[in-house]
Amino acid sequence: MNYTVHKAFQKDKQVLTSYIENYETSGEDFGNQDRNSLKLYNLNGLTINVKSFKIPNLVNQIAYRFFRKSKAQRSFEYANRLLHLGIGTPKPIAFYEYKTPFLFKKSYYISEHLPYDLTYRELTFNLTMANHEAILRAFTRFTFGLHKAGVNFLDHSPGNTLIQLNGGAYKFYLVDLNRMEFGDMDFETRIKNFARLTTHKSMVEIMSDEYAKLGGYDYNRVFHLMWEETEAFQNRFHRKRRIKNKVFFWRKK
């Protein structure tokens, strides 16, 4: 087992390692994870979460063993980079990896468990929520700040932004960090980054309006591209789902 622990938590290495070694029989299950699992632990009065990434397929076991950083390592490094840029994300604590001489197996990412009031997803479910437009515009300003800092969050999707309301002083925190790119972003890349967030045209209109004001862009140009990318993503998503359902149907036969 290999691991890296943040310097602020070096004194807790033994306890953290015991959480990983006993992960299957310890901790409190948290949330629903399609492919991975997440558990809560108490570390000297601090609630932390441990995300367990499933064992990758054989090709990726080789890739992660020799050529690519694991999801856990990328999550840890990207969290540190975001915090350095002043961008909200739960504090990174450690990552652990299990490897054989030729294959990569399981990995774990440990971070602070951050209390929050809602995620972006709730905005898509409840369009009549109190201060809905104000929160959405604040989220758009947060995203503009990401882009200005050169952060392209490739998993910018409804469940991956935690929101603290703070009486109207909204704060946003990114989670599920293992897919990011860093560098200058052109207009098309910036607007495409909104494609996975909602199917509601009214929300796209508000985000387009706010983003256009922030960037000094023409509103119609922003809206048409944002809505076009949103529809394109939805079409790809539903096409993949139909294919998966057909494969599942034929396997059952």
TrEMBL record:
Keywords of this entry: Kinase, Transferase
Protein name according to UniProt: Lipopolysaccharide kinase InaA family protein
Example of a GO MF term: kinase activity
Lineage start: Bacteria, Pseudomonadati, Bacteroidota, Flavobacteriia, Flavobacteriales
Domain of life: Bacteria
